[in-house]
Prior knowledge:
The complex is a heterodimer of chains A (298) and B (342).
Chain A: H1 16-32, H2 37-56, H3 60-87, H4 96-116, H5 123-128, H6 133-136, H7 142-148, H8 153-169, H9 174-200, H10 202-205, H11 209-222, H12 232-238, H13 245-248, H14 250-256, H15 260-285, E1 295-297
Helix pairs in contact in A: 3-4, 3-8, 4-8, 4-9, 4-14, 9-11, 9-15
Chain B: E1 2-17, H1 22-30, E2 33-48, E3 52-56, H2 63-70, E4 78-83, H3 92-96, E5 99-103, E6 106-110, H4 115-125, H5 130-143, H6 159-171, E7 177-181, H7 189-206, E8 209-213, H8 217-223, E9 226-231, E10 234-240, H9 241-247, E11 251-258, E12 274-277, E13 283-289, H10 295-305, E14 308-314, H11 318-340
Parallel strand pairs in B: 3-8, 3-9, 5-7, 7-8
Antiparallel strand pairs in B: 1-2, 1-4, 9-10, 11-13, 11-14, 12-13
Amino acid sequence: MEADRKPAERSASAAAPTRAATMAASAAAADRRKGTFWRGTLPFLLTCWKLNLAGAMEFRLSFLMTAGMMFLNNVIWLLFWGIFFDRFPDVAGWELKDVMLLWAVSAGGFGWASVLLGNFTRIAYLTANGELDVYLTQPKPLLLNVLASRMSLTAIGDFLFGAAIYAYVGDHSWTGLASFLLALLMSGLFFLFFTLAAGSLAFFFGNAEGIAFQLFNSFLAFTTYPADIFKGLGRLLLFTIVPAGFISYMPIGLLRGWDGSFMLAAAGMLLLLAALSLGLFYAGLRRYSSGNRMAMRS
Amino acid sequence: MNVLETKGLRKTFRVKRKEPGFAASLRSLWAPSWSEKEAVSGIDLAVEEGETIAFLGPNGAGKSTTIKMLTGILHPSGGEATVLGHVPWQERKQLAYRIGTVFGQKSQLWYHLPPSDTFELMSRIYELDRDDYRRRRDLLIERFELGPYLDTAVRRLSLGERMRCEIACSFLHRPRLLFLDEPTIGLDAMIKERIRELIAELNREEGTTVFLTSHDAGDIERLCRRAVVIHHGGIMVDGSVQRLKRDILRYKTVAVRLAESSPPAELLPLPPGARRLPADAGQLRLSVDLTEIGVEQVLQGLMSTLAIADVTIEDPPMEEVIKTLFARGRDEGVAAREEDAP
């Protein structure tokens, strides 16, 4: 059938197209000014976090119980370590206080990352189920938008646990506090980028939720044991392929005293991991195939 | 001025093939078999500013895939496209400030929070000036009648209420082009009608170009002036909705209201090409096949034997047009496959 492409008849007056064109031009000029960090991204992130928290508090009891149970869960693990250190006061040079701080750094780091950027553990799921669509239609940095759109409730308990342990056994001097905050920051970023890289495999393998979950769990498990109990190949893996060692050595390499070579290696590995995970995510995005599953952000 | 142009836009997906059965599953573990599925095969399209265009096709025709390429969600396998001067998959963010999207199956609303909170978030996402945002929000709340449930958590809203919020949200930043993918899916007739009215009003008043996919003939009839029908990933028909109704089905419905003095119409002999349809007492409805007989001839015949109070001549309903088009597409597809067969 022959094409018939008449434009729509408009009810507006003859002056309307000129006005519309002027409006469009000024809108385009305004759009060009958008997208800066201070005026665009930061207010968006703050609103996102505020609404995430509001959403979490819609179910107050669930919120308190979920966060509280995670806090208790972590405390129980420390009780086991307490019993252990009661019989063996020194494990490869580590004392109970070091293990407590290790848990504080690991849980606290995971906690802040999951509270502020809570979708990082769900990248494989979101990708495999075509749930990036809504984020892709919004004019915000995609990854930041996806990550900040969810807050993990259990992670609030993790973060509070980390803070409580620091308050209990940590070094309360200014340098002690700064070191702890740096450890938390780096720990959260290690969790974030490692899990993002694992989750981004979904772009390449399709349903990679299983493998991403396994990798995340391995990483998480290794961050809760003193790095020095691993020797040989295990230690090599811990500081390369599954770089959980950079978190689990923090109590010695940063909190007990500044170990320059360890911190340099940690920063280097973090940069490498960040580049790898971001590269995987954005390269994978070109292969994103969407989907037709019903979805709603919650 | 064109707001949207595509040339040979194409998208193929790599699909894993597996024969049924456990043995085939085991085989596919070490020797998987893949094939290319062409979802969109070379679409050429131009849409002018202010148009309301219906993008139609049966399930799997490539409608959603095309919209996803035009909004920057998917990268195409080939071809070109510009939307408001931007290449969607390369300038996604710049484009997103200027378009709106509503996916019937994917919500932008925050499930556990009231729509007012999503409005707030959207204002930050699109970086709207605060005063302008408040004015615009209040206007949309009034127009879409969202007031009563603006502060109710989205999970407690009905589907119709949710969809009104969804569409109102998509208008918040005054998009120049609005993509609607099945916006009335699952809604009752009254809500559908209201949503169509609102979209039509904003198209008229703000000149927003509307690009709509739907399976609902009512959406197309009430909202769109132009229809593009795609099938097997390619454009099958591109024309005005009125013209589609006129040309695709070569029949018209003649509805006659009889005068009180008229003899009964039940026994009236009908000419070849005219078929009686169910009608109320005192009325006569005929389906006239224009390939066999003209409407004037039928009317002349009726007027010579009946006393007529009123006559209306109707085009076939859009529903019928779509059914015919899709059936035609299916038959062509079968014929093409038969030709390809060795």
